[in-house]
Amino acid sequence: MTAHPSSPRAANARMYAIDDDVAAHWKRLFEWVSERAGVPLHVVDHPPPRPLHALWRRDDLGCAFMCGYPWSTWDEASARPRLLAAARPAPERYGKRPLYCTDIVVRADSPAMDVEALQGSRFAYTADHSQSGYQAPRAYFAPRAARCGGRFFGAIVGPLQTPRAVVAAVLNDRADAGPLDSWWHDLLRRHEPETAARLRTVATTPMTAVPPLVTAAAMPGADCERLTAALEHVGIESTLADLRGALLIDGFTRATEAPYAALAESARRVDATGYAELR
Hints:
Elements: E1 9-12, H1 20-37, E2 41-43, H2 52-56, E3 61-65, H3 68-72, E4 82-89, E5 99-100, E6 102-107, E7 122-124, H4 131-147, E8 155-157, H5 163-171, E9 177-181, H6 182-191, H7 193-196, E10 199-204, E11 208-209, E12 212-215, H8 221-233, H9 241-247, E13 249-254, H10 258-272
Parallel strand pairs: 1-2, 1-3, 7-8
Antiparallel strand pairs: 3-12, 4-12, 4-13, 5-11, 6-9, 6-10
């Protein structure tokens, strides 16, 4: 579809809308950003199993979360979504920086007390285009796989597409362990503590750039700037204090290319070791 310049543009926070209540918080935030920026946005549904790539390729995309790895490896440079801003997750481990990592989780009652105990286990994943759900774990486990003759796990379970499905696979004994986007995991602890308590983290991967908010490649530059400026103001707007608390954000920082380009380079380095896929 082609967006008319004055038509509302699509906004979506599926990656971090862990449930309907959190989705409502994101909708309110997008409405505030739209009003402050003077750029019409409307929140669109794009639920699983609809592929995220279809969302990111929308010509009318206005403001949506996008995983950094597919952004860095986009196959059509001229059509790649434009970076707007990156969230600074509020929990202390991020140091008020636009970073995140992957939490490797098991059931709370699992006998696995550390990551080495996962050798030979069943490991879940979301999709191979996901940084937190595949590429970060692949880089993390590559040295361990090399020490084990090229294979660390007994079985790979997936693609499961979403962190929620990874949680279900672990809790329902379809998998022994799996990766969770750390900010998504923090939101689960905040809003669904009973579910989160049934999981235990046995390892975390190194921090990398958090998924950015992006807009369509064809978005006028002036509108991009207004959206970015509005997002940068989120962290200091007093009326949004409750939203920041609910969404676990300190604010947003203007997104730049270099931290995301590093994700593609990291994947190439892992490829060069011969560990081309989780196994």
